[in-house]
């Protein structure tokens, strides 16, 4: 029977949901060809080779990658050339930008598309190793009749992705055969080889990009650690992840239960989020000690061997020890490791003019930390903007072109100092769009101006943990991210509670039972809730000891207040204060942004 017809029937059967002996990756790719790319399995199309000019453009864009990948590609080709393999390096679009093949087979290779400039995207060529690898981000073999288009069913192709240090797929490495044995298993060795080469290319890329940073290489076995490690990541001076190989992205993602496909989210997070390791232990992991002694553990309990490589030339800025933190920063936490690490990072950032964003639940201390960073950094005015009050009023923030001094915006007022945008997610969409330039380039456009104005200031944005109203592209421009833990997750919460009482000037202390209640409480209002509790206790408790009975029902288990009741209280307070937001906020014990938010959530009009 006609092989082509057979092939088409098999694809149609899979489309109808019949089970198939093919690998899941092949079946999924066939389904994408049918439903996403809308390809016809009965149609046959020759491999597409880009015109010269278009190919030149693709190669120019991949120049850096080709330069870094070159030795890896040549080594791989040297290993497989004797077995008639050709080697292709394709860019993200599936276009072959580098090629090594046997001159003697030139004609046949060109004909079959195993050639420079061939486009092997799945949408163009149907199921093929390069295209399916780009779609799935994983290494795979597409062997003979695994191909969707029966034009390609004589080929056997094996591909592995190459990721950049930010975790984005940038290229695919492929070795292919014009003719191969029938069994797909014949290509297992090819798969291993391509994956190892891709890993080494990523490693070379990471090392080239991070000569001045700490690099941490990881391996499951000490024997390979120093010669051919499985993964590597780079760290900035304060121990945050700067970049990684794909292997490292998988390890870090697994350690925190994240999806490795969103590796970009791992960048900027502190090392202890993933490993039981802090930067002050990196020196103990250099080659001075035998590899077998350099083991560490991931947060999900996997044991790894590590090799830390010191930054070259410039000495790295090691994180400030706790005693070296400025008093403003030091006072923000007791004995809590994540907070100590966060404050060290904040101290390192405070002396540089980089934008910073601070995330945390309501009352977690975002604004307080922003102020402390400003204090630690030194110079200039501090302008705090409550973004709910700005809304979409562009002129308020950015000022107007050719304005008199009094009409300048808040950004101009912060010149030479710090601009804190508190609850930045409360800004309207137009203001958010205008803010992008300030965050990314340090310039801004006053309303009505045609030329951007440079802003010499440090930008600190605070945002709620879940801030869906904020543009994703703005979030990424808001600089280094500091994530404040919720009070219930802090080991120093009882220390904070005692200190809050002391700050009220009261000669009071908590009984052991009362401390147990505080330790178990969920603290939805975080530090704000704690400081209000201290103020209330100071006013209500007579003896020297706060007992469980002295604590309010919200802590000791009375039913929580319902949203309707909260709405009624808010409405009543607004009426009593004649709509005065500041006074309402003061009486409710929350800040003004919270009142604005509740008004909006409850659909009230002012
Ligand atoms: N480290 C701290 N120790 C004790 N109290 C603190 C600390 N940080 C903040 N507070 C107190 O907690 C309250 C809330 O702090 P802050 O306004 O900084 O929180 P926030 O996260 O910005 O809140 P929101 O997002 O709700 O505006 C303030 O009264 C502040 O004084």
From TrEMBL:
What Gene Ontology molecular-function terms does this entry list? ATP binding; sequence-specific DNA binding
Per UniProt, the keywords (alphabetical) are: ATP-binding, DNA-binding, Nucleotide-binding, Transcription, Transcription regulation, Two-component regulatory system
What the entry lists under Pfam families is as follows: AAA_lid_14, GAF, HTH_8, Sigma54_activat
Q: Has the keyword Transcription been applied to this entry?
A: yes
UniProt GO BP: phosphorelay signal transduction system; regulation of DNA-templated transcription
Q: The Sigma-54 factor interaction domain covers which part of the protein?
A: 332-539
Nucleotide-binding listed as a keyword: yes
Q: Which residues form the signal peptide?
A: none
Family matches, as InterPro entries: AAA_lid_NorR (IPR058031), GAF (IPR003018), GAF-like_dom_sf (IPR029016), Homeodomain-like_sf (IPR009057), HTH_Fis (IPR002197), P-loop_NTPase (IPR027417), Sigma_54_int (IPR002078), Sigma_54_int_dom_CS (IPR025944)
Return the CDD domains for the record: AAA
Annotated TM spans: none
Name the SUPFAM superfamilies for this protein: GAF domain-like, Homeodomain-like, P-loop containing nucleoside triphosphate hydrolases
Full protein name: Transcriptional regulator of acetoin/glycerol metabolism
Q: Which organism is the protein's source?
A: Cereibacter azotoformans
